[in-house]
Write a structure and sequence with these properties.
This protein has helices spanning 11-32, 41-65, 72-92, 96-109, 122-141, 157-174, 180-203, 209-228, 232-252. The protein is 73% helix and 0% strand. The chain is mostly helical. Keywords: Membrane, Transmembrane, Transmembrane helix. The chain crosses the membrane at residues 12-31, 37-58, 122-144, 156-174, 181-200, 206-227.
């Protein structure tokens, strides 16, 4: 992959990618929710909060790719807006969500500095998988009294694999250290894990042969498009739109 050029940010591009990133983080929870998800109250505020966060992270990744960082003023404005939205979300739902969302704020704030190359670490990968593949979807599906059992994580194993692939490819695109072999190794491990999981759920008759073939075909087509595309903006768009399609197809079936 050609890593010599950086992502060119335009307002339409930023809005599209931030929207896709937000949808990827919540579409499993929306489709699995036992009650209709309406764009009102806490759900709408949470969607706005995640969109603003993805908007900020896109600028943070772009700055990191160039060896720079987002301005402290922009980061402080983001924190203030986030604090207001978190307060409103917990007012509609439960105070425990404040701890989760403030933890996500710390995760984002760690991307502020390029000094420790945090965005080029597996720690960043795992935390992004945890929040976007699991936590936000749980927040949409849990209902009062918001009790949690470990088996509630099971429906989101597939989303965690897809978010893992999405995160690793995104890190590879924006890598300041150009750690190509590092990301290829973890992508290979993640794809092997996803293949094993798909075989398991097919063997347990959780999905049909048609769904299995369709998912594998979508993954192969997505990989082929990413490999053939050299322009980084197109690569990032393809990555996010195919991630959304895979998640929507799997959780809609």
């Amino acid at each position: 992959m050609n890593q010599n050029t950086s992502i060119k940010l335009t307002l339409p591009y930023i809005l599209i990618i931030a929207l896709l990133q937000t949808l990827i983080a919540v579409i499993p929870g929306i489709l699995l929710s036992h009650q209709p998800i309406r764009l009102s109250g806490a759900n709408f505020i949470m969607f706005v909060y995640l969109f603003i966060s993805d908007f900020y992270l896109l600028f943070s990744r772009n700055a990191y790719q160039k060896g720079k960082q987002v301005s402290i003023q922009a980061s402080l404005v983001k924190i203030v807006f986030s604090a207001i939205l978190i307060y409103k979300i917990t007012g509609h739902l439960t105070y425990q969500y404040a701890f989760i969302l403030f933890a996500y704020e710390i995760f984002q704030f760690l991307t502020f500095s390029s000094r420790y190359q945090y965005q080029d670490t597996i720690f960043y990968t795992l935390l992004n998988i945890f929040f976007k593949g699991c936590v936000f979807n749980l927040m949409l599906t849990l209902q009062a009294p918001y009790s949690f059992q470990l088996n509630k994580l099971e429906p989101f194993i597939f989303s965690m694999f897809i978010i893992g692939i999405n995160t690793l490819v995104t890190q590879k695109i924006y890598s300041y250290l150009k750690r190509n072999n590092f990301y290829l190794m973890w992508l290979g491990i993640t794809l092997i894990g996803l293949g094993g999981y798909l075989y398991y759920i097919f063997n347990q008759r959780f999905i049909s042969l048609f769904v299995l073939i369709a998912l594998i075909s979508l993954l192969i087509i997505s990989a082929a498009c990413l490999i053939r595309t050299k322009q980084l903006n197109k690569k990032e768009f393809i990555l996010n739109i195919t991630s959304f399609i895979l998640l929507y197809f799997y959780y809609r079936m």
